[in-house]
UniProtKB/TrEMBL annotation:
<protein>
    <recommendedName>
        <fullName>Uridine phosphorylase</fullName>
        <ecNumber>2.4.2.3</ecNumber>
    </recommendedName>
</protein>
<feature type="domain" description="Nucleoside phosphorylase">
    <location>
        <begin position="29"/>
        <end position="265"/>
    </location>
</feature>
<dbReference type="GO" id="GO:0004731">
    <property type="term" value="F:purine-nucleoside phosphorylase activity"/>
</dbReference>
<dbReference type="GO" id="GO:0005829">
    <property type="term" value="C:cytosol"/>
</dbReference>
<dbReference type="GO" id="GO:0004850">
    <property type="term" value="F:uridine phosphorylase activity"/>
</dbReference>
<dbReference type="Pfam" id="PF01048">
    <property type="entry name" value="PNP_UDP_1"/>
</dbReference>
<dbReference type="InterPro" id="IPR000845">
    <property type="entry name" value="Nucleoside_phosphorylase_d"/>
</dbReference>
<dbReference type="InterPro" id="IPR035994">
    <property type="entry name" value="Nucleoside_phosphorylase_sf"/>
</dbReference>
<dbReference type="GO" id="GO:0006152">
    <property type="term" value="P:purine nucleoside catabolic process"/>
</dbReference>
Length: 288
């Protein structure tokens, strides 16, 4: 029996942060960071049956061309992914009344649609990246027993090639779900190795008023290459999604609209168009 201090429920029985009951979500879920992007996806739906918001976590569930889909905003960062993932999993794999784990596991299909900055000159603004792998530059996944699912060979290569300071913790590399990868992939995508940072400024090499631990880290990540696997982009959620997905038995894929290219210093002149095209493409792939 899971203690009430470990899985907190609201007075109506919903999970604490997301304010959701099991019947409020579908098995196919789209993650977005920005709560305002939820409606930009569900405006394509034929109908919306449920909508709620608590803090930055906005949820809408409805029908798109005969398929029931939930769109969930996560906010920014691996710490928020930890909250969202554990509570969504509890909705389908824990009996919230008895607080016992259900005997039959339910696997969710989770696709992230996000924005990101490219680290390579040949991955231009307004292109799309599908994250084949993600490396967590934060330490969130190391709170769990992730070693069975992480890729030590890529982690070791990353540590060596970037001269990573292990005082910041060991980076964690996790792969996407192959079934979702095959379902959604087309030649519209660059397949990528995505870096997930625990912050927007110093952790991504930005300097405003504070000096950072390794001013050359971005250049070293740009140059990373292990048997043809290059770092493609940098954002703040994908490795947490992949790691918790593997640990909890859910199928996860991260798709990134490239709205900036840090290698050449460019920003998209119409980022909304790039994101909207990725949304429409993903929705139609999910129903097949």
């Amino acid at each position: 029996m899971i203690k009430s201090s470990e899985l907190i429920l609201n007075p109506d029985g919903s999970v604490y942060h997301l304010n959701l009951l099991p019947e409020n979500i579908a098995n196919d879920i789209i993650f977005v960071g920005d709560q305002e992007r939820v409606s930009k996806i569900t405006q394509h739906f034929d109908s919306i049956e449920f909508s709620t918001q608590k803090r930055e976590f906005k949820t809408e569930t409805g029908m798109y061309k005969g398929k029931r889909i939930t769109v969930q905003s996560t906010g920014i960062g691996p710490d928020n992914i930890d909250i969202v993932f554990n509570e969504l999993d509890a909705l389908v794999n824990v009996d919230l009344k008895t607080r016992e784990i259900k005997p039959n596991h339910t696997a969710l299909n989770i696709v992230r649609i996000g924005t990101s900055g490219s680290l390579q000159a040949d991955i231009p603004v307004d292109s799309w990246v599908m994250s084949k792998y993600a490396v967590g530059l934060d330490n969130m996944l190391r709170s769990y027993l992730i070693e069975e699912h992480s890729i030590a060979e890529l982690e070791d290569a990353f540590i060596q090639q970037t001269n990573w300071d292990l005082r910041k913790g060991r980076p964690t590399v996790v792969a996407c779900d192959v079934t979702l990868e095959n379902k959604i992939y087309s030649d519209k995508f660059h397949k990528g190795f995505t870096g997930t940072a625990g912050g927007f400024y110093g952790p991504q090499g930005r300097v405003v008023r504070l000096n950072i631990q390794d001013p050359n880290l971005n250049k070293k990540m740009d140059a990373f290459n292990h048997n043809g696997t290059r770092m493609t982009n940098l954002e703040m959620e994908t490795s947490a999604i992949y790691g918790l997905g593997k640990l909890l038995g859910h199928n996860c894929l991260s798709l990134n609209a490239i709205i900036a290219n840090r290698a050449v210093g460019e920003f998209s002149s119409n980022p909304e168009k790039t994101v909207n095209e990725l949304i429409a493409y993903t929705l139609d792939k999910l129903i097949k």
